[in-house]
Amino acid sequence: MTDHEDGTPDATTVYDLVGIGIGPFNLSLAALADGAPELRTLFLDAKPAFSWHPGLLLEGTTLQVPFLADLVTMVAPTSPWSYLNYLREHDRMFPFFFSERFHIPRREYDHYCRWVAERLPSCRFDARVTALEWDEGAQAFAVTHRTAKTADSDAGVNAGAGAGADTAAVVDGGTVSRVLARQIVLGVGTLPVVPEPLRPLVTAAHEGRVLHSADYRTHRAALAAADDVTVIGAGQSGAEVTLDLLRHQDGNGEGGPYVRWLARTPAFAPMEYSKIGLEHFTPDYIRYFRALPADRRRRLVGEQWQLYKGVSEETLAEIHDELYERTIGGTEPRAALHPGVEIVGVAVGPRGPGAGYLLTCRHIEQDAIFEIRTKAIVCATGYAAGRPSFLNGMAKLVDWDDQGRYRIDGDYRVALDPRVSGVLYVQNAELHTHGVGAPDLTLGAWRAATILNAVAGRTVLRVPERAAWTTFGAPAVPEAPGIPRSRASLRALDGRTP
After folding, report:
1. CA nearest 141: which of 17, 313, 324, 311?
2. What does the radius of gyration of the chain's CA atoms come to, in whole angstroms?
3. Other C-beta atoms within 10 Å of 377: how many?
4. How far apart are CA 141 and CA 424, in angstroms?
5. Which whole-number Å values give the CA distances from 81 to 96, 127, 175, 473, 490, in the listed order?
6. What pLDDT does residue 147 have?
7. β-pairing verdict for 190-192 and 383-385
8. 273's torsion region: left (phi>0), alpha (psi -120 to 50) or beta?
9. pLDDT tens digits, residue range 207-221?
């Protein structure tokens, strides 16, 4: 790629790939693409610098995957962008070795990713994509973006663009630019989900009192000082917020908030972390899942919540230990845990938001209605893929499924109108087509390598054909000579055509 001396891309460049959004997944692709110098790539983001779930970067929290699931190691362990090389560059190899950590601090993972993003010349921050269109004359995608000084309040999509253009104009002290690309990869991330009855309250009028866990760190001190806080959601984030609030209670059981933890799931359950169970996060399972009918895929995703929505055993144990400590001598805990509960309604206190909230809840299995009064609500209710507004200009050229989602093939290509000769890829928007591994960091480098090989039209990085001991689905051949493993095998051994 040819750039000007100030780092902005050359105006005549038509990129082989432009990535929109720089979270861990697109950053992984940028890091791996750095090893394919023949490709002209550019990765763009609206934020002023890399940041990863800043609202949940709490002291003592760790990744739920081992450090080997960094940006590159699972497919390119000798890459200079590995976590181990990050440690070496920061003179932390010996401390890391002595700490015997397999799951690294979440804050350090964020710092590692920022270190990579700041050093990759293809990454541009502090601007926002405002439009993605297909330019028939150029036979390329046109990406329009603007610097932060002129960025509008296109809420909810943390994706954007950096400098470099076919055309550029100065507007109100910022620059509006346009680049062309033969291929695009969307890595705009997912959006916070709030239970429907609470959505009208996630406003400035209730700021700091009704919020998503993505903003927890910002309001942490105020929540710790509240009389009563209700946390909703049984995943890792909900558990970590609950634990953090419990730790703000003092030893005599009087200071700090009363902490209530609610969840729709039938239990506060640990994440599936057995060695064989983790094989659901392999290319083998993705291939199996993709071949299933859509209705079966939909059912499986709901049933497999413990694979990607459970809580680490360590965090559950720490919550239990905190409650145990607070009940020594017969003291009643200033906490309550309620699984199997959904929120069906909410009312603001009679004297305004400061008076608190009245939650109407339903116990799902008992079909029993009850009410809870609380002063603050933290919704640790996860994230979901959304459609970024900059895609509106291309919406008619995307072949959406019957639920308005992307149709995505094995190489993460989105189905487009045949008139579009370019290729659009997505990352972390394929839960419905590829299964529970979509949001998991374990598969990040593998997926990025798969996309990179498709973009390059060659094998830039070898990806494994088989990664699991488990056979997902009915096998076509006997497991051992003379031992049939499927109906087809039985028919074949019987002398009949399978």
Report:
1. 17
2. 25
3. 29
4. 9
5. 17, 24, 31, 36, 50
6. 85
7. antiparallel
8. alpha
9. 999 999 999 999 999
Which contiguous run of DSSP H or E holds residue 24? Answer: helix 24-33
Q: Which among 376, 423, 393 has a CA at the least distance from the CA of 256? A: 376
Give ∠ CA 111-72-182 in degrees, rounded to 5: 105
Please give the full DSSP string across 230-292, using - where no structure is assigned.
Answer: EEE--SHHHHHHHHHHHTTS-TTS-SS-EEEEE-SSSS--BPP--TTGGGGGSHHHHHHHHTS
CA gap 61, 237 in Å, rounded: 10
Please, is 296 exposed, middle or buried when counting C-beta atoms within 10 Å of its C-beta (0-12, 13-18, 19+)? exposed
CB neighbourhood size of 144 (10 A) = 19
Token pair of 309, please? 């929505």
Neighbouring residues of 329: CB distance < 8 A, sequence distance ≥ 6: none
Mean pLDDT value across residues 84-100: 97
Distances (CA, A) of 100 to 61, 90, 480: 16, 17, 41
Length of the chain: 498
**Do strands 174-181 and 167-171 pair parallel, antiparallel, or not at all (unpaired)?**
antiparallel
Residue 465, CA distances (Å) to 213, 287, 359 in order: 38, 11, 51
Decide: 300 and 292 in contact? Cβ < 8 Å.
yes
Retrieve residue 20's tokens. Answer: 């929109």
Determine which helix (DSSP H) or strand (DSSP E) holds 296, and give its type and residue range: helix 294-303
pLDDT in tens, 55-79: 999 999 999 999 999 999 999 999 9
Q: Is 164 left (phi over 0), alpha (psi -120 to 50) or beta?
A: left
Residue 487 host element (H or E): helix 487-493
State both tokens at 412: 């993460």
Beta bridge partners of 136: none
Is-contact 122 33, C-beta < 8 A?
A: yes
The CA-atom distances, in angstroms, between 168 and each of 21, 133, 177, 266 are 20, 17, 4, 55
- C-beta separation of 482 from 489 below 8 A: no
Dihedral sign, CA of 150, 156, 162, 166? negative
Q: Which tens digits make up the pLDDT trace of 364-421? A: 999 999 999 999 999 999 999 989 999 999 999 999 999 999 999 999 999 999 999 9
- β-pairing verdict for 140-147 and 127-135: antiparallel
| Residue 281 to residue 440: CA distance in whole angstroms | 8
Q: Are 32 and 76 in contact (CB under 8 A)?
A: yes
Say what percent of the chain tops pLDDT 70.
87
**170 within 8 A of 163, measured Cβ to Cβ:** no
